[in-house]
Inverse folding.
């Protein structure tokens, strides 16, 4: 079983500059390899990540000598792992009829990161040793015990983190309190369980709406320089503040998602959820902010990998399964059910909370299709 522990780094100024250089090198190598891949493919030449890495190694000392200032892993793993995965996902999407989009060039300042192989760093207590740099302070010790496979150093706003991947033995299947549960995700309430339990989301966008508006307005006023001209120091400061606020909101969403998915996998052996059309929901400007707050896509991703690790089963109902319109008692399905109707009333006499009814239907679906 593979797990990762993401820990905050506390680099000094020299170390922070090194991280920025290594991230820039990884981004340059990725973009260079993407351009070469496209050129070779259009010319009918054989191309893969191995060929591109060998070509870059052959020319970097002469054409890109600044690459030698950082770890060799930065450019090599950007091609071997990131670009190769991007093309695999692209071709897999084409075969499955679900296009994921052709790999795109990376922009400076967006998802800055670089990878390290397991022989290129060393962890000891609250420090990590990185090539050509030395020891960097960690916020905490590595909590996972197993074989270290690699790591990724990344930046969120103005903070640096290292995610260390560790191979661990499979966890024993623990005894859980209940067998099955249905989970109905919503925009008003994060999740409603089939037993009637409601988990309220943090609604980060609503919580920080005024601050977001104020900072965006301030940033807009300070962006007076023409395209290509250097921005003012006040613009840079405000942009940094805005990035910190977005990072804080993402942390809130991530924290509640982790807590919910961990609770479900540790307490239930069978979990029923529905296949939500998140992209379609985000296209609705009235729902987009609330949908983003609830982190639906990340919820499903975390639930599936945590369930797989602990021996639980996740059953995903078809997107067209009428979880809300179907009566959980008699099975009758309503032709129409307005979003404003929060109570489900059936002709059989049953009166349910709308979300509890949907969650119960998902639980029943999971029991039938497990």
């Amino acid at each position: 079983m593979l797990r990762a522990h993401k820990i905050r780094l506390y680099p000094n100024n020299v170390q922070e500059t090194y991280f920025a250089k290594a991230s820039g090198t990884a981004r340059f190598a990725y973009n260079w390899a993407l351009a070469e891949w496209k050129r070779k493919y259009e010319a009918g030449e054989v191309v893969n990540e191995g060929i591109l890495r060998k070509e870059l190694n052959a020319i970097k000392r002469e054409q890109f000598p600044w690459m030698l200032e950082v770890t060799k892993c930065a450019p090599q793993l950007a091609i071997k792992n990131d670009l190769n995965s991007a093309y695999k996902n692209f071709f897999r999407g084409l075969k499955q009829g679900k296009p994921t989009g052709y790999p795109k060039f990376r922009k400076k300042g967006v998802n800055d990161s670089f990878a390290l192989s397991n022989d290129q760093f060393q962890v000891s207590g609250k420090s990590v040793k990185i090539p050509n740099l030395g020891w960097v302070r960690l916020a905490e010790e590595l909590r996972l015990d197993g074989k270290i496979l690699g790591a990724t150093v990344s930046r969120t706003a103005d903070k640096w983190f290292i995610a260390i991947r560790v191979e661990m033995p499979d966890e024993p299947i623990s005894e859980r309190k209940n067998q099955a549960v249905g989970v109905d995700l919503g925009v008003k309430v994060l999740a409603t369980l089939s037993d009637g339990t409601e988990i309220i989301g943090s609604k980060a966008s609503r919580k920080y709406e005024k601050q977001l508006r104020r900072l965006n307005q301030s940033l807009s006023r300070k962006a007076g320089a023409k395209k290509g001209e250097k921005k003012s120091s006040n613009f840079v400061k405000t942009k940094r503040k805005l990035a910190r606020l977005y990072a804080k909101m993402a942390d809130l969403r991530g924290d509640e998602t982790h807590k919910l998915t961990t609770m479900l996998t540790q307490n239930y052996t069978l979990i029923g959820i529905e296949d939500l059309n998140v992209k379609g929901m985000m296209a609705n400007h009235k729902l987009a902010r609330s949908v983003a707050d609830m982190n639906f896509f990340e919820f499903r991703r975390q639930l599936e990998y945590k369930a797989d690790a602990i021996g639980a089963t996740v059953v995903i109902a078809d997107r067209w399964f009428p979880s809300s319109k179907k009566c959980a008692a008699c099975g009758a399905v309503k032709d129409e059910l307005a979003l404003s109707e929060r109570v489900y009333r059936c002709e059989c006499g049953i009166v349910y909370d709308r979300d509890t009814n949907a969650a119960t239907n998902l639980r029943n679906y999971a029991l039938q299709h497990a």
Remarks:
- The chain is about 45% helix and 20% strand.
- The mean pLDDT is 87.
- The longest strand covers residues 147-156.
